[in-house]
C-alpha cells in the first residue's frame, strides 16, 4: 500500500509539472504570435487559461484579453469586429 501511495504522489506531481511546462511553452508561443499579429484565437484562449495562474497570470491574462478585444487590434489581425475573417 505504501508503494502505491508513493507512485500516486509521483504521478500527480509529474502531471502538474508537465502541465505547467506545457502552459509556459504556450505562453511563449502566444507572445511570439502576438508580436507577429498571427493566430488571434490561440492567443485569446491562452490569455483566458492564463487567468487561472494567480496573481501575475491573472493580471497578464486580463490585460491581454482587454487589448485583444479592441477593434483596432482585430483589424490588424485581419478580422472583422465580430472576430470572423474579413
What does this 3D model show about the protein?
Helices cover 76% and strands 0% of the residues. By secondary structure, it is mainly α. It has one domain (2-76). It starts with a helix and ends in a 10-residue tail after the last helix. Helix 1 packs across helix 2 and helix 2 packs antiparallel against helix 3 (56-68). The chain has helices spanning 2-36, 40-50, 56-68, 71-76.
Features:
86 residues, mainly alpha, 4 helices, elongated
Q: Which helices and strands occur, and which strands form pairs?
A:
Layout: H1 2-36, H2 40-50, H3 56-68, H4 71-76
Helix pairs in contact: 1-2, 2-3
Give the fraction of residues assigned to helices. over 70%
Q: Which sheet architecture does the biggest sheet show?
A: none
Mean pLDDT rating: 94
Backbone CA Rg = 17 Å
Number of domains: 1
Low-confidence stretches: none
Structural class: mainly alpha
The global form is elongated
Order of helices and strands: HHHH
Strand content: under 5%
Short description:
The chain is mainly alpha-helical and 86 residues long.
Amino acid at each position: 500500500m505504501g508503494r502505491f501511495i508513493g507512485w500516486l504522489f509521483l504521478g500527480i506531481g509529474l502531471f502538474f509539472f508537465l502541465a505547467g511546462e506545457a502552459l509556459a511553452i504556450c505562453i511563449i508561443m502566444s507572445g511570439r504570435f502576438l508580436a507577429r499579429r498571427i493566430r488571434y484565437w490561440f492567443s485569446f484562449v491562452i490569455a483566458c487559461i492564463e487567468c487561472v495562474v494567480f496573481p501575475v497570470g491573472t493580471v497578464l491574462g486580463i490585460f491581454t484579453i482587454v487589448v485583444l478585444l479592441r477593434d483596432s487590434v482585430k483589424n490588424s489581425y485581419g478580422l472583422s469586429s465580430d472576430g470572423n475573417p474579413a
